[in-house]
Amino acid sequence: MMMAAFILAQATAPPCGPTQEIYDSLAKYHEERIYAGLNGQSFFETWANQSTGTWTILRTTPDGTSCIMAAGDNFLTFGRKPNT
After folding, report:
1. Pairing mode, if any, of strands 16-18 and 42-48?
2. Element holding 71 (H helix, E strand)
């Protein structure tokens, strides 16, 4: 039973849409882009609200589609303040 739930969770596609629409949805949480980097053809970004601790990781492809890969709370930085 637990394995079936795990497989179903893995099969669920992440929410995706035009990049600007995803950015606009993050504005509700007052998240700002904290980190970004390329991985092959994909651009990964970490957005966070350092006051509330919410965070989101996005993957953007060259066609302008962004997908929310992960999100949560309790965002932490360790000893270094991110460049903004």
Report:
1. unpaired
2. strand 65-72
pLDDT at position 10, please?
Answer: 52
Helix (H, G, I), strand (E, B) or coil at 11: helix
Tokens of 73: 């709370």
Determine the pLDDT at residue 4.
Answer: 47
The answer to whether 67 and 45 have CB atoms below 8 angstroms apart is no
Question: pLDDT by residue (tens digit) across 28-64?
Answer: 899 999 999 999 999 999 999 989 999 999 999 999 9
| Residue 70 token pair | 């992960």
Instruction: Give alpha helix (H) positions in 28-66.
Output: none
Which residues lie below 8 Å from residue 51, measured CB to CB, with a gap of 6+?
A: 30
Q: Decide: 55 and 72 in contact? Cβ < 8 Å.
A: yes
